Each structure stands twice: as C-alpha cells, then as structure tokens.
From TrEMBL:
Pfam families: Lys_Orn_oxgnase. Keywords: FAD, Flavoprotein, NADP, Oxidoreductase. The keyword Oxidoreductase applies. Belongs to the lysine N(6)-hydroxylase/L-ornithine N(5)-oxygenase family. Pathway: Siderophore biosynthesis. Its cofactor is FAD. This is Lysine N6-hydroxylase/L-ornithine N5-oxygenase.
C-alpha cells in the first residue's frame, strides 16, 4: 500500500490553500506527496446558503494565497483575469465579491488538484499503525457513496473538516424530523416546504438575518418569526482598529497569552464574528418591520429576548414553548418549519481521531497547529479551523488561511528548525517536534 507523506481530511478552503502552498514550494525543490479526502461528491462551499444578493463579509484580498504570496497564480485577482472579468470587477469598486463569485473562485482553485483528492468519501476513523512500541504511521479509513471501504496509509495528517451544525438541546429529540433543519441545509430543505405558512428562524447572526430576508422576499412568502435571546441585532464591527484582531500577526499575540488572557480577548471581541450581521442587512430587516407598522399588516414577528424552552412534534406542526425573558412568562406557537441558524461546533476532529486519543492527551496544539502527543507517537497531526481557543477568533475565518498554511507547510517541509529535533523515518515529524 502506498504511504503518503500527508493525507488531508476535508477539501474546503483551508486544505485547498494548503495544497496551493505545497504546490508552490515545489519550485524550491520541496516535494510533499499530499492526498485529500472529501465527503462531498464535488467541491461545494456552503452550497445551501448561496442566497441571491449575498456578499462576502471579508475582503477578496484575504483569498487562498494573496496574504502569503501576492504573485501566486491562485489569487482572486488572477482568477478574475483567467475568467476575463478583471476590468469589470474593478468597475464594481468593491472589496466584497458576491458569495456566488467567491464560491466559483474556490471551485476554480480546487479544480487544479482533482488528481489529488478523492471526492465522495467520508472518513470514518483514523487508526494507529504500530512499529514495535511506536506509532509510526496512520491508517485512514473512508467509505465511498457505493459503500466500499478504502484504507490509506500516511506519515502525517491534517484535519480541515469545518464546523458541524450546533443543535440546541431542546431540538435534539427532533433529529430526523424534516420540519426542523439547520441553516447549513437551508436551500435544500426549504425547497420541501413550499406550502409552509408559518416558519420560525432561530438565531441572531448573519445566517439568521439572510434567511429571514430570503423568506420575506419569496413569492407568496410565509409568516416568519425571528426568534433570539438578544435584545437587539448587533452589527459586526469592521472598523480598522478592531479588524486588527484578524491580522496574521495577532495570532502570535493571542497564542502567547495566558489561558485567562485568551478567554478575556475572545470575550471582548466575540461580537466581531458571532451574532453580528452586516449593518446593511440589519437596516433591511428594520425596514421590513417598520413598513409593517405603516401598513398595519403584521406578517412577521421579531421575538427578541425570547428563548425556546421546548419543542414538541405535532401532526399539524412543531410546537415551541417560548419564554419571554422580559415579561418572565411563557407562551406557545406552532410552526410548519423551523430553521436553526444556531452556529457550528468545531470539535469533530476529536471523534475522527478517537482511536488515537491515548496518545493525544487533551488534544492541545502548538503554535504550528500541530497536536501535542506522547513521545512514542511519530506522525504529525495538524488542525485547521479548530484552534480558536488557542489561536484567536480569526482561526475559523479566511483571514489567516493563506498565512496559516504557510506556517504548516514550513513545518511539513522541514524549514522550521526546532531544538532537539532528531532524525527518524518521518523527517517531517522530527521538525514539527510535537
């Protein structure tokens, strides 16, 4: 069986950026045999949130390559050049392309690595391959759409699987009920509810706001209740000094702080990334409710300072018990469909790597995003997008993706020299030093 230098789980923006980084380092004589496994049948990035008139919340300059190598073939600007749209994009006078266009850019970049990615395979587990008392290799087991099991060996691993839908506890018992679904599946699932008359959207962030406006603008649109615990929808703060927390060099600052300081930093700037829609979108929603007051037609409700106490499936719909946090009393409402715009969890790597947990301790990472392990564990395992608590709020965003993959790439290629490195059958691991 072929032994790869590196296997990547997931082929979204983070691991595409790593593939680009490793490809560009070949011109300097470095070569890593990297292979990626992606469970989707082809490249797709938030496919079920590709709503009309939605735009990026981040500058196109924070693409897969520019912050690391502005002269890269894989910059967004070169993508526009290759697609013969550069002049027209300049005339738009914007830093924020549509989400559809940025998705096309990512797909264009991913297409250059089709021979190095197995699409339509879900990784089931990662197993240790022992040599005497040491774990020398990793066996990555995956299942394709036909049910066939594939096994591949690798010296090193990188996990970039993105977030898994976060489902509030009161909705867990309704798993499998098609009337309740997460925003990550919105377009696919809402298509099954064309006749819905009353829909609840639970959440206070960008996704909740976009879905509310999408439902409002649909022909024969339903009554929509926007439900959130917050008192108001707060806009994202993208002012220059606040935006410095998403700079690549701020990662070093966050990582070097004490645990207590990091928690305080995450608390202070939480609203720059979570429960913080664009101001323009907030103004559109405010206008919807204002126009309702003008016409006297209360089609939608903004249930602020409300929380869902329980959710009960009934033949006629999903009944929610809602607590008004201001009034301190509960009331009941029944909906044909409920959209949970409730965010994501970033700990799925622990499930994938469970067979390795005896070697992983608390799954802590070093500065190069490499999991710290026991001395008898030789493979290096890197995480992308799962290190917010140690590396800062930018970790789950595109902001540092290009720079992060350069740091990981340097560790993989032996560029970073660390004290105490020894020669082993995995020179990459000797340099990573974790």
């Amino acid at each position: 069986m072929q032994i790869h230098d590196l296997i990547g789980i997931g082929f979204g923006p983070s691991n595409i950026a790593l593939a680009i980084t490793l490809e560009e380092k070949k011109q300097y004589g470095f070569n890593v045999d990297a292979f990626f496994i992606e469970k989707q049948p082809g490249f797709a990035w938030h496919a079920n949130m590709m709503l009309d008139n939605t735009h990026m919340q981040i500058s196109f300059l924070k693409d897969l390559a520019t912050m690391r190598n502005p002269s890269s073939y894989f910059t967004f600007i070169n993508y526009l050049h290759q697609k013969q749209r550069l002049q027209d994009f300049i005339n738009l006078k914007t830093f924020f392309p549509s989400r559809h266009e940025f998705n096309d850019y990512l797909a264009w970049a991913a297409s250059h690595f089709n021979d190095r990615c197995a699409y339509g395979e879900e990784v089931l587990e990662v197993l240790p391959e022992k040599r005497n008392d040491e774990v020398a290799l990793l066996r990555v087991c995956s299942r394709d759409s036909d049910g066939a099991i594939h096994e591949r060996l690798t010296r090193n691993l990188i996990v970039g699987v993105g977030g898994m839908p976060s489902i509030p506890e009161c909705f867990l018992s309704l798993k499998g009920d098609p009337r309740v679904f997460h925003s990550s599946a919105y377009l696919r699932e809402i298509a099954q509810h064309g006749s819905a008359k009353k829909i609840a959207v639970v959440g206070a962030g960008q996704s909740a706001a976009e879905i509310f406006m999408d439902l409002h603008n649909r022909p024969g649109a339903p009554h929509v209740d926007l439900i959130m615990r917050a008192r108001a929808i707060k806009p994202s703060d993208d002012s220059p000094f606040v935006n410095e927390i998403f700079n690549a060099d701020f990662t070093e600052f966050v990582f070097s702080r004490s645990d207590e300081d990091r928690v305080a930093l995450l608390d202070e700037f939480w609203h720059t990334n979570y429960a913080a829609p664009d101001l323009v979108l907030i103004e559109q929603i405010f206008n919807v409710f204002y126009q309702q007051r003008v016409t006297g037609n209360e089609r939608h409700r903004f249930l602020r300072r409300h929380e869902v106490v329980s959710a009960n499936p009934l033949p006629e719909g999903i009944q929610l018990v809602l607590r008004d946090l201001n009034a301190g009393r509960e009331h009941v409402a029944t909906y044909d469909a409920i959209v949970l715009a409730t965010g994501y969890n970033r700990d799925h790597h622990k499930s994938l790597l469970k067979p390795l947990s005896p070697y992983m301790g608390e799954f802590a990472v070093d500065r190069q995003y490499c999991l710290q392990s026991t001395p008898n564990f030789r493979p290096a395992i890197f995480l992308q997008g799962a290190c917010e608590s140690s590396h800062g709020l930018s970790d789950t965003l595109l902001s540092v993706t290009a720079v992060r993959t350069d740091e990981i790439g340097q560790a993989l290629l032996g560029v970073v020299n660390q004290p105490g490195a020894t020669q082993t059958d995995n020179p990459i691991r000797a340099v990573a030093g974790r």
